[in-house]
Design brief:
about 325 residues; 12 helices
Length: about 325
């Protein structure tokens, strides 16, 4: 990796030479960009990564974030990283439920206004162009599937668009476009950090520890002793209502080894995000890749924020030597 950085430096690669106002190298050190992945609750690890980098004098001047990565990156860009860490560590199962303003009237299960108010209390009404560092939140346009980089306008709305998980949060309308979760197109936005003229790009993938995924099963079919599915007979009256209620519970929570609807949605999202991440990073890898070991933390385990932050800090500590060597190679 370091040999590649040296080659880029010698041959005048744009990602090495490009500079912008506010992202210029200091004392010969390269401008540092960081690309923060999605991952919902696992994304709290980004706080630990950023805290560790700052502790060792490494200040990312360019931030590109997707979904939860956009939230943490945006709070860092607004100078509210510690306040965000304090809020995250205060979350309990009960407090999390308090943010879930369920709505059956819109295009998402959760209205999201309570969470948005909490974010606004943290970052205020600041605009992206007023931030001290370069920032981009990644979102996806519904109609076209375009990857949208939100680099101007209200920071709060940009974050809401980037974390609008389909089916959970309603899409957000910005600049006459309906936008959803950026993880649908760019889960670890290394390309955006490079385009913002980062000379050294650190990627943080909060989903890197989801092992045992993505293989190919070459031959599969029914087992000989597997029973055929039997269609249920129609019923009327109160029996039909009881059956409908029971069916709804089964759909939500699953039964007898059959996954429920939320599990199906989450696992399908994980599979999609994993495949897209591999493809994007294969074509445009980060200079340094940090992969916190978060496989034990679920997407909605927000009450385990302190644990995720610690894991992120440990992952960043393991990468410090690589980062320092890369900085020397580019300086």
């Amino acid at each position: 990796m370091l040999q590649g950085l040296l080659r880029r430096n010698r041959r005048g690669d744009r990602s090495v030479e490009a500079e912008t106002d506010g992202a210029a190298p200091k004392n010969g050190a390269p401008s540092i960009g960081i690309a923060l992945s999605g991952g919902a609750a696992r994304g709290f690890a980004h706080i630990g990564v950023l805290q560790t980098l700052l502790k060792h004098g490494l200040r990312p001047e360019i931030v590109a974030g997707t979904s939860m990565g956009a939230v943490i990156g945006g709070c860092y860009a607004a100078g509210q990283l510690e306040a965000t860490a304090e809020w995250a560590c205060s979350l309990t199962r009960r407090r999390i439920l308090g943010y879930l303003d369920v709505s059956l009237a819109g295009s998402g299960l959760i209205n999201g206004s309570r969470l948005a108010r909490q974010l606004e209390r943290t970052i205020g009404k600041i605009k992206i162009e007023a931030l001290d560092i370069h920032f981009a939140a990644i979102a996806t346009e519904i109609d076209t599937g375009h990857e949208v980089w939100l680099t101007r306008g209200r920071l709060l709305e940009a974050l809401r668009a980037s974390y609008a998980l389909p089916g959970v949060f309603a899409p957000v309308r910005i600049g006459n476009r309906w936008l959803l979760d950026g993880a649908l197109v760019n889960p670890v936005p290394v390309s955006a950090a490079r385009a913002l003229d980062a000379r050294l790009v650190i990627g943080v993938n909060a989903n890197a520890d989801l092992l045992g995924r993505g293989a190919t099963i070459h031959s599969h079919g029914f087992d000989d002793d597997e029973p055929e599915p039997v269609a249920a007979a129609g019923e009327g009256g109160w029996r039909a209502r009881r059956r409908a209620e029971k069916l709804l519970r089964r759909k939500l929570f699953g039964h007898a080894g059959r996954p429920g609807l939320p599990t199906v949605m989450i696992e399908a999202y994980n599979v999609m995000q994993d495949r897209i991440t591999r493809a994007r990073l294969a074509g445009d890898p980060a200079d340094i890749m940090i992969g916190p070991r978060l496989g034990d933390i679920g997407m909605f385990d927000f009450h385990r924020a302190e644990e995720a932050i610690q894991i992120g800090a440990e992952a960043a500590e393991r990468s410090l030597d690589q980062i320092e060597q890369a900085i020397k190679a580019l300086a």
